[in-house]
Amino acid sequence: MMSNLDINFFFEDFRLNAYILNVDLQTDATLQVDISDALSERDKVKFTVHTKSTLPNFKQNEFSVVRQHEEFIWLHDSFVENEEYAGYIIPPSPPRPDFDASREKLQKLGEGEGSMTKEEFTKMKQELEAEYLAIFKKTVAMHEVFLCRVAAHPVLRKDLNFHVFLEYNQDLSVRGKNKKEKLEDFFKNVVKSADGVLVAGVKDVDDFFEHEKTFLLEYHNRVKDSSAKSDRMIRSHKSAADDINRIASTLYTLGTQDSTDLCKFFLKVSELFEKTRKIEARVAADEDLKLADLLKYYLRESQAAKDLLYRRGRALVDYENANKALDKARAKNKDVLQAETTQQVCCQKFEKISESAKQELIDFKTRRVAAFRKNLVELAELELKHAKGNLQLLQSCLGVLKGDT
Amino acid sequence: MAEEREPPPLPGVPEPQDAEDLFVSAASAMEDAERSLSPEDISSSSNGPKAEPMLLDHDPDDLFAEATEEVSLDSPERQMILSDGPSPAITPVTINPRADVFDRSPDQDEDEEENRDTFDIQISVSDPEKVGDGMNAYMAYKVTTKTSLSIFSRDEVCVKRRFSDFLGLHSKLASKYMHIGYIVPPAPEKSIVGQRLGRRSSAVTELDPDAKACLCCRYLLRTVKQPALLKDPDVLQFLESSELPRAVSTQALSGAGILRMVNKAADAVNKMTIKMNESDAWFEEKQQQFENLDVQLRKLHASVESLVFHRKELSVNTASFAKSAAMLGNSEDHTALSRALSQLAEVEEKIDQLHQDQACADFYLISELLGDYVRLITAVKGVFDQRMKTWAKCQDAQVMLQRKREAEAKLQHANKPDKLQQAKDEIREWEGKVQQGERDFEQISKNIRREVGRFEKDRVKDFRVVIIKYLESLVHTQQQLIKYWEAFLPEAKAIA
């Protein structure tokens, strides 16, 4: 009964979220992408991608298509596999929409319907729906951020696949990877990480890149740690808020039952706790948005940056190998021309990657600093706002209660 | 602690209404190495029973110095000492700040509007120390009584008692007073059976000595609050005499213990079989009310325990996040951002401390109160049951009387003069018993009415006081939060 939740939304506020994560997105008129609508069906989410563009490549100036998560992944993978883009930080793909936990809770609630009072049931249902909604909003935001990053990137925005993605209003027939392909991917990853270790071991002549390598490695690990810890913290916060909710209901019942003067007292306190609980829940939600999401996003971005460095490192190794091969060929005086061309190709590739990588990494830092600044400031402001709200509620309630005695 | 001592360490926190903070436990080194505590800091400042500075008199602005030591259910951390109210001669008092709420002695009570009676007695239970070793080891507590009441021989008495002494006192009082309808405060429990939401089974946790000391203190205070019990020689003996005969019968496995269990079982069976004709609607109504109250209080207690648990968890997670954020700040190569992240880590660390303190407040203020009341209500229900038993006895006596009368009538017909005399004697005897039974019943009903009235009054007062204190602790937490985040905001804005 609960599992077929169809939530249709027109979002305003979560678009704000996208801007929060990518502060420097130029909303220039040549290409503007957003997700204007989203539909959550049984086990998939359908996003309506809306594009406004003045570019000549598109047939119309404004159009929309419906896309699913797999199609976003397809687009991302096509970037990664494209040699041309080896020198860029590929915007990390959005995480898969995961409503499992929420759905499970909703189901448990449905099963336990008989064992709780009507008010409790309605309250819990409302909360779960709110939670579902929050997760939903987040996943939409993540997908939108991905598209916006691509649209803002001077090179990626011109990608043909991207345009197809935006415009082609039929199903892209991008099926998810089957088992064989997933296995292939797995092996590729194993090879890649082994390779990555080798490549990482190569000392870079360039100080800038050497520094970036060490920095990114450490940073990535620490962001991962912080992200996990912040998640745990926020979960505890939510549990505590839930407890306050239960306390509020029990106090309410006590208030209605009590025969002494305490009844009014209990009712007032119950009301107070209802309100403070809402605030606590909002605090947890805001922390989630401003802190946890920020960390999660930069976890993925730093991974993408690491991938860039890996590609560059790979190119460097290839270049050096080509040099060695050329020397050997010259020594043996065999296939010199071929070795020379290979070496030149490798050299060019390496230099191209290095050049763009440098700029990308500098941009990454700027973006990161700006995003952190914005989010931390907003986090602090929201915490303050909620604490002040909480304080006011508590103080006014205390005033009333003390006045009663 | 008397309020006139010193201004409360933290602004905006009103003084506690119940000034006497006489719960004491010896200071000892903290186990929590992370908190910077200074165990020797025994100040004589009073401290509101607030979440935070349980103990030390710190400069309120020195945010890091709010080293508080929590007494958690699981870790045997000791509490810091805090000041004592009236006379410094008294052993250093540790505040179990929440516990002072339960103090019944209005001696230095600032709240003059409450019509406190001429009650003038302060009790504190302190210094749990291990005596003996091996199998025979036990915890001894120092019980200090200060009073100006005339029934006591001295103004100030200090005796050593062990836990089983408390249980012994309770069993004596229960046997003397329960059956005439007085609500005898339930004995402090050795261990608590707690039920955590989410954990299906109930966990029996051994209370740590400080919490036990609090429990015993509250027990004694409730006991002396009863005017009848206060005058009881057993109570006086308990509080005053230096040596008390070992209450052997309170041991769980003793003969008396087993007897008690058998009695309890018999009572339970009886309860089910006695169908009382309730002539007095008041009793029926009250019983129903207490049933409902019991159910709700238990539920509330469970929720509060869960809240305490989650808050503690939150505090732990916040602390680990703070460390992680500090590390992140370290590895960040943009200096301003790095600094801001370190600041964030500091803020989170302070907040974790706040959460811990709040969890303590949750526990000591609310959870303990609820636990006490759940147990008290059991005692109240017991009293109602006594009334039922008395009624049953009365009924039985009446039935007996009827039977004797019938027997006499039969004998009269059969014309056996000697047996007749005996029968007439028996009838007189049973008539007397019936009258006694009815008188007992009247008496117990009257007592119960009075006791319940008193109980309700106390309940109202207790809850009101405690909840207000709790809300004040919440207020304090929010104020601190505001302070921390306000300090952080400019740092975040300063990221260039």
UniProtKB/TrEMBL annotation, chain A:
One term under GO cellular component: endosome
Pfam hit, one: PX
MF terms in GO: phosphatidylinositol binding
Statement: the UniProt record of this protein carries the keyword Ligase: no
Keywords: Protein transport, Transport
Domain of life: Eukaryota
Annotated InterPro entries: AH/BAR_dom_sf, PX_dom, PX_dom_sf, SNX5/SNX6/SNX32, Vps5_C
PX domain residues: 25-172
GO annotation terms (biological process): protein transport; retrograde transport, endosome to Golgi
Primary role: Involved in several stages of intracellular trafficking.
PANTHER family in the record: SORTING NEXIN FAMILY MEMBER, SORTING NEXIN-6
Family indicated by similarity: Belongs to the sorting nexin family.
Protein name listed in UniProt: Sorting nexin
Source organism (scientific name): Sinocyclocheilus rhinocerous
